Automatic annotation (TrEMBL):
One protein family per Pfam: BPD_transp_1
Keyword Transmembrane helix attributed: yes
Species annotation: Marinobacter guineae
Main location: membrane
Known function: Part of the binding-protein-dependent transport system for glutamine; probably responsible for the translocation of the substrate across the membrane.
Name of this chain's protein: Putative glutamine transport system permease protein GlnP
InterPro entries from the UniProt entry: AA_ABC_transptr_permease_3TM, ArtM/GltK/GlnP/TcyL/YhdX-like, MetI-like, MetI-like_sf
Family (UniProt): Belongs to the binding-protein-dependent transport system permease family. HisMQ subfamily.
Gene3D superfamilies in the cross-refs: MetI-like
NCBIfam families recorded: HEQRo_perm_3TM
Compartments where located: Cell inner membrane; Cell membrane
Length: 223
């Protein structure tokens, strides 16, 4: 039996203004969460390579828990489960940022750990021989080199986190997918609308990829 389906370009175009309203939420949740996640990643990443067990173990536990559970489960727990514990409701936007922050923070922790440990130990010895303290050696010599090596995986994590926001429609966050669902409920043109949603996500992530490639070509990244 032949399909009678024909792509309605006009319907796809008509959906664009409504879908665009979800992009600010997508970007604010993803980049707001990533900013907090970067801070968490540095903190727990450095703790995870600490020789003191009472610092290392909690960091390792955080990393394994949030890397080992789906982000969808995490955001559902934050939005629906956590209010039972704290006795007050949580805004969907806040829950989305918290989920991105905690999830990306766990992955960034591993990026930080790997970046720092990839630097030759001779760099640390060189700093100490110059009369620098261990703290000064780390932040002046080790960290700048390690951070340049972290840029590509950090960029990849940013792309993943942007796409992860599509899951937050389940808690009513007005991001791209949620806007698409609302529009489809009134027009019943799912193929065209989701096609445009996919194109918008692709435009965002591809733009970020181009920026990362530009950074690499400028020699700001060490491999």
């Amino acid at each position: 039996m032949e399909s009678q389906f024909q792509f309605d370009w006009q319907a796809a175009i008509n959906a664009i203004p409504f879908l665009l309203e979800g992009i600010p939420y997508t970007l604010m949740i993803s980049f707001g969460g990533l900013l907090i996640g970067f801070v968490l990643g540095i903190f727990f990443g450095l703790l995870s390579i600490n020789k003191l067990w009472f610092l290392k173990w909690p960091a390792t536990a955080y990393i394994e828990i949030f890397r080992g559970t789906p982000i969808l489960v995490q955001v559902l727990f934050i939005f629906y489960g956590l209010p039972d514990l704290i006795g007050t409701s949580i805004n969907p936007f806040t829950a989305g940022i918290a989920a991105i922050a905690l999830n990306s923070g766990a992955y960034i922790s591993e990026v930080v750990r790997g970046g720092v440990q990839s630097i030759d130990k001779g760099q640390n010895e060189a700093g100490l021989s110059l009369g620098l303290s261990r703290t000064q050696t780390f932040w002046s010599i080790i960290w700048p080199q390690a951070f340049r090596r972290m840029v590509p995986p950090l960029g990849n994590q940013a792309i993943v986190s942007i796409k992860d926001t599509s899951l937050f429609s389940v808690i009513g966050v007005g991001e791209l997918v949620r806007q698409g669902q609302i529009y489809i409920a009134t027009t019943f043109q799912a193929f065209e609308v989701y096609f445009m949603v996919a194109l918008m996500y692709l435009a965002i992530t591809f733009s970020l990829s181009l920026i990362l490639r530009f950074v690499e070509r400028r020699g700001l990244v060490s491999v």
